[in-house]
């Protein structure tokens, strides 16, 4: 379709990605969004106007060469498009599914000024699924062994991206994961209706074929210390332990039963074999928070049979931190939103459990240090919301490796690093959520790739191969 003049491409119709109907998808945890057909992908990619300085590329944390693989897709050159997307991203098939494109590349799309933006994420998913169906995940060229050994702690996106890049450079990499299977929050924190576990399996199996050694059910700092890794033959360590420590406001009634944190709830019900552990049939569920984790909890609760699911958030919809698409998906699935509401206290049912939440109306005041309008309580506007289960999704602090003399951490539990991602201990690097706090998969990949390059420089400059 690229024979269409650029000025006329704005007239081409947007091809929205199809989704399974809510009544169907609430019965399982399978992916909601379907995949483009080749004809749909060509038509949608043809809407790209080929900007000279593509703002979508600038808005992408990985600076993916989006325009170039959109052009290839529009020409039907799907394998070339996929190969190009894989040069800047270690897991484009994952990013195409869960990256908040509506806040990044698609939000910056010039076409989106007056028309729906080009569906960059859906096309990224299509070309990579097409490539996998045609050729699997062929192994790239790997440099000759250097004799250097690197330990990566954590098998989330930052850790896996770092391992991927280091192995390609000829280093031996061992990834330590505390959970039974690799993938970190990709496997245990993100529900299957956004990212099915088979996609994670496919990527980790590829890394094993590439030469990455995956050691699961081993918690660094408990089962093996950081010092033991450094003294046991590893020449460098990359800490990609994520941010999983929940933030909790100090509110009256926090001690009541049936008030829990988001991540344990998601992990417990995010199974790949058998049934979820919770049966919420008939229960009134309230989720506190407005980010993507809150949306995951809300949508999971709907699938577990809750009678009602309500989101309580202290700002309005326009100022939510999460993806707008996730908010819309939750609405489609029957979630009720209480905007500009903040919890004041939890209410006792008389038997030690929660029966509801007292909340207060908020209004948006002056902008805070990040430019977001600060929510201000409206005196005397308190009211109650009934609840049998309350899930807190206020965000996460870093989860550093337990160590009495480990690298320096901030008050938020995140590692302090220099420009190369090295911590206060020479040879020990850190990145992803372990440094940034809870952030995006895309930024974790950025950090993992950058750390691999920095570790490679460090190894070559400071150590001798075995």
Textual characterization of the structure:
This protein is an alpha/beta fold and 466 residues long. The protein folds into three domains: 130 residues, Alpha-helical ferredoxin (Fumarate Reductase Iron-sulfur Protein, Chain B, domain 2); 162 residues, FAD/NAD(P)-binding domain (3-Layer(bba) Sandwich), CATH 3.50.50; 147 residues, FAD/NAD(P)-binding domain (3-Layer(bba) Sandwich), CATH 3.50.50.60. Helices cover 33% and strands 16% of the residues. It is built from 18 helices and 16 strands. The strands form four sheets. It has a five-stranded parallel sheet. Strands 6-14-7-8-9 form a five-stranded parallel sheet. α10 links the parallel β1 and β2. α6 packs across α9, α7 packs antiparallel against α9 and α14 crosses α15. The mean pLDDT is 95.
Please give a quick description of this structure.
With 466 residues, the chain is of the alpha/beta class. It has three domains: 130 residues, Alpha-helical ferredoxin (Fumarate Reductase Iron-sulfur Protein, Chain B, domain 2); 162 residues, FAD/NAD(P)-binding domain (3-Layer(bba) Sandwich), CATH 3.50.50; 147 residues, FAD/NAD(P)-binding domain (3-Layer(bba) Sandwich).
Count of discrete alpha- or pi-helical segments spanning 4 or more residues: 18
What is the annotated CATH architecture of the largest domain?
3-Layer(bba) Sandwich
User: Percent of residues in beta strands?
Assistant: 15-25%
The average pLDDT value, as a whole number, equals 95
Return the CATH topology of the largest domain: FAD/NAD(P)-binding domain
CATH class of the largest domain: Alpha Beta
Describe the biggest sheet?
5 strands, parallel
Structural class: alpha/beta
- What name goes with the CATH superfamily of the largest domain? FAD/NAD(P)-binding domain
Number of spatially distinct domains: 3
Tell me, briefly, the overall form: globular
> Over all CA atoms, what is the radius of gyration?
23 Å
Measured between the Cα atoms of the first and last residue, the distance is: 55 Å
Model regions low in confidence, pLDDT < 50 over at least 5 residues: none
The number of distinct β-strands equals 16
Strand order of the largest sheet: 3-2-1-4-16
Binned, the helix content reads 25-40%
């Amino acid at each position: 379709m690229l024979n269409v003049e650029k000025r006329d491409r704005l007239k081409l119709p947007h091809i929205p990605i199809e989704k399974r109907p809510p009544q169907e998808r609430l019965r399982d945890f399978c992916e909601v969004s379907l995949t483009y057909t080749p004809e749909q992908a060509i038509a949608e990619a043809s809407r790209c106007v080929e900007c000279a300085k593509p703002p979508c590329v600038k808005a992408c944390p990985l600076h993916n060469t989006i325009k170039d693989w959109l052009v290839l897709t529009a020409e039907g050159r799907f394998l070339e498009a996929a190969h190009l997307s894989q040069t800047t991203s270690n897991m484009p098939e994952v990013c195409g599914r869960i990256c908040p494109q509506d806040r990044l590349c698609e939000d910056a799309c010039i076409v989106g000024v007056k028309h729906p933006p080009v569906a960059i994420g859906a096309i990224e998913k299509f070309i990579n699924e097409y490539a996998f169906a045609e050729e699997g995940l062929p192994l790239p060229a790997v440099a000759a062994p250097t004799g250097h050994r690197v330990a990566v702690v954590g098998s989330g996106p930052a850790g896996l991206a770092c391992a991927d890049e280091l192995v390609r450079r000829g280093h031996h990499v061992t990834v330590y994961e505390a959970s039974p299977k690799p993938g970190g929050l990709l496997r245990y924190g993100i529900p299957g209706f956004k990212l099915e576990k088979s996609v994670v399996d496919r990527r980790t199996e590829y890394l094993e074929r590439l030469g990455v050694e995956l050691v699961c059910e081993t918690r660094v700092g408990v089962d093996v210390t950081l010092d033991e890794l450094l003294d046991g033959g590893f020449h460098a360590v990359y800490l990609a332990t994520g941010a999983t420590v929940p933030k909790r406001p100090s509110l009256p009634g926090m001690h009541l039963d049936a008030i829990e944190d988001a991540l344990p709830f998601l992990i417990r019900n995010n199974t790949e074999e058998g049934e979820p552990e919770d049966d919420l049939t008939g229960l009134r569920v309230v989720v506190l928070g407005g980010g993507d984790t809150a949306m995951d909890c809300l949508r999971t609760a709907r699938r577990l049979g809750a009678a009602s699911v309500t989101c309580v958030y202290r700002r309005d919809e326009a100022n939510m931190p999460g993806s707008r698409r996730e908010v819309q998906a939750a609405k489609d699935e029957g979630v009720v939103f209480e905007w500009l509401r903040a919890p004041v206290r939890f209410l006792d049912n008389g038997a030690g459990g929660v029966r509801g939440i007292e909340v207060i109306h908020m209004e948006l005041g002056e902008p805070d240090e990040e430019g977001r309008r600060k929510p201000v309580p409206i005196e005397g506007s308190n009211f109650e919301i009934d609840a049998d289960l309350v899930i807190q999704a206020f965000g996460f602090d870093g989860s550093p490796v337990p160590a009495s003399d480990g690298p320096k951490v901030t008050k938020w539990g995140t590692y302090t690093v220099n420009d190369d991602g090295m911590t206060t201990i020479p040879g020990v690097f850190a990145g992803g959520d372990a440094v940034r706090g809870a952030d995006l998969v895309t930024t974790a990949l950025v950090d993992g790739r950058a750390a691999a390059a920095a570790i490679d420089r460090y190894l070559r400059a400071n150590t001798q191969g075995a």
